[in-house]
Amino acid sequence: MTRTVVATGFGCVSGLGIGVAETWRRAVAGEGAIRRLRRNPPAGHPARGIDGPAAWIEPGASREALAGEDLRRLGQLDLLSQHALAATAEAVDAAGLRDHPSLSSRTAIVLGCGSGGNATVDAAYERLYGRGLGKVHPQTIPSSMISAPASHMAMMLGIHGPTFVIASACASSAHALGEAMHMIRSGRVDVAIAGGAEACLNLGSWVGWKSLGVVADDTCRPFSKDRTGMVLGEGAAIVVLESEEHAFSRGAPILGELAGYGMSSDAADMTAPDQAGIEAAIHAAHADAGVALDAPALISTHGTGTRVNDPAEAAAMHAVYSDAIMRNIAIATKSAHGHLIGATAALEFIIGMKALAEGIAPPVLNHLGPDPECELPLALAATPIDLEVLVSNSFAFGGLNAVLVGRRRS
Q1: Choice among 170, 200, 220, 374 that is catalytic
Q2: Which whole number is the average pLDDT over 288-302?
Q3: Core-most of 60, 199, 326, 365, by most CB within 10 Å?
Q4: Is 339 a catalytic residue?
Q5: Long-range contacts of 315-323 (CB under 8 A, 24+ apart)
Q6: Which domains does the chain have, with CATH numbers?
Q7: 100 belongs to the catalytic site
């Protein structure tokens, strides 16, 4: 059995805003969310705190978006779960699925997260090592588990079907969407609530990322000369996927089709990309979707703005598409919303599908001019498009690659 898989609901929260409408408005208007984040460490802590560019969500905003939900029985919610729940509520309501009978047993939750509840872990360690206390909050383990947001989503919606988290660093939510697609295609479920969440703008995570030497000191400049690295963001993005038959049977809105999914493993290095692995994932996604390599497409690049990743991705795309690369339009929305790690791929998929539907590609921000090593047909301003296909790239640390192919539906 192979069933067509369609998207019927989108939801997201990020530095660009709470909700799809605000996120899309700001993205297409070229309004970036990256700004300086300053957070002091706990009193008496020797660390210098957070001081640098980031794309964060205003404190309490995701929780406020859940004002109509009964969250009392869910326990302590790390920011990771708050972001996931806010995006989920929007997506499910947009799909018209709230309280639908299929949620109980014919629905899966597949969430991508690069890490667990970082803020909760930080708070516990500060008590233990910073203040020398012998106990931490009793909800530390339940709220910091990487699977916690998926469980909270199931509890909020009453979902008893398959519920789990995929962790593959920056490709996590691409893998989540792709595997959810296969679950629907095969008939295991009719509906999947899939996407990703991340909340890593805490001191411990920040210091770890800075120590890698890949974080920019100014802003994110994908494929630009003089780029200095990535910029961290936070948030969540959720897509409601359904079999086409199930969506039609209940008169659901069809926002587009998730038509293909390809993945690969570089098996080469923990941080450096491998061009052959990137090419393999792109080829696999096109083959799965039945989309020719010379078909014009909107390409949502991984586009981290790092010195090493951008040239590898550009070289892979030139190798895969050859002369046809110039028929495409490339976007790089991390320049607007930052790098949401495990949530990024799902957010980029939503923005890319909105671009197909609205007929306009959001601009790549902060560009200082072309780098000969990574020239691509970038949309450097909001660009009118008439394209049916989206190719969305995600290439993670550890050489874990995932590419999604979306298709516009009229």
Answers
A1: 170
A2: 98
A3: 199
A4: yes
A5: 315/275, 315/373, 315/374, 316/275, 316/278, 316/279, 316/282, 317/282, 317/376, 319/275, 319/279, 320/279, 320/282, 320/283, 320/293, 321/293, 321/294, 322/293
A6: 5-256 (3.40.47.10), 261-407 (3.40.47.10)
A7: no
